[in-house]
Specification:
With 206 residues, the chain is mostly helical. Helices cover 74% and strands 0% of the residues. The longest helix is centred in the N-terminal third of the chain and has 22 residues.
Length: 206
Amino acid sequence: MKINPSSYQAYMPMQTKKQQPEAVVTEETLNPKQVLKETAQRIVSEINEARTDMGEDDPKAQRLIEKFKNGQKLSREEMNYIRQNAPGIMDYVDRIMRERDMIERSMKAAPSKTDVQMVVYRTSKQIEKDPDPDIREVRAKHLADAKQEYEQTDDYKKKPNSPLEKEERPLKVRYKKNPKHYEQIAIQMYERSDIKKVGTHFEQQK
């Protein structure tokens, strides 16, 4: 039996050419200058956002930040202004201001001037361990400024020089009292009592 070649070819699968992957054509391949321009614009935009985040374009924010770096305490209004116009630096500012607040509270709670100096000394030792020299410098300035401000207050001036002096102070106060003070009180009590009237009555009977 002869096989008709035409009928054999009818059963042969038709071979197709392998399709090559189509090249993805983008604007980057078509216009490299445009890509370079957009990249530059993106970088500039990121830089501007960073400057705004740190308040570099706001003169008032920069003055307040410089004031803070010099160790001066910021008011609540000044803190809020930095928070709104230089939010990128607020974590740094908040951390040091919280530390200063803790130092001020510790100095007020200290029972004597010697204890106040111990608070300052211990805090200075902690600051020396800060690995960042710039932050270490700002923290040291705030410690010095807080110490100077507190030493000018009446609360500090009224503190005894040492805990030992505080224990002796009540005894000294007792000896300073004038004995005539008690004599005057006794006379006033006598004049207001009925004893004076009784004495006058006996004198009239004589």
